[in-house]
Amino acid sequence: MYHDSRYGTIDLSSIGSNSGTPTFKDMSSIPANNFVWSYNPCYKFSEHSCQNVSGCQSKIFYMKI
To answer: Is residue 54 part of a domain?
Structure first.
């Protein structure tokens, strides 16, 4: 929760997931680059090299076929 004297209280916990996986997973950056973002407001998650975080940036690796 965030308390602001002008806007009141903002509570993002209702959109967060407490299952250990992020609500927003591998979202592309704008403008697009070689990274994706995962975000989970108010609850920790782990993926790739990120452990117990609320936000994670990961590099995309492409495989040549």
So the answer is: yes
Total domains present in the chain: 1
Tens of pLDDT, residues 8-38 = 998 888 999 999 999 999 999 888 888 999 9
- The reply to whether 52 falls in a domain is yes
Range of the structural domain that residue 23 is part of: 2-58
Q: Report yes or no: 29 and 35 within 8 Å, Cβ to Cβ.
A: yes
> What's the rounded Cα separation, in Å, for the pair 3 and 25?
27
Look up the pTM and report it. 0.72
Give long-range contacts, CB 8 A cutoff, 24+ apart: 9-14. 12/41, 12/42, 13/41, 13/42, 13/43
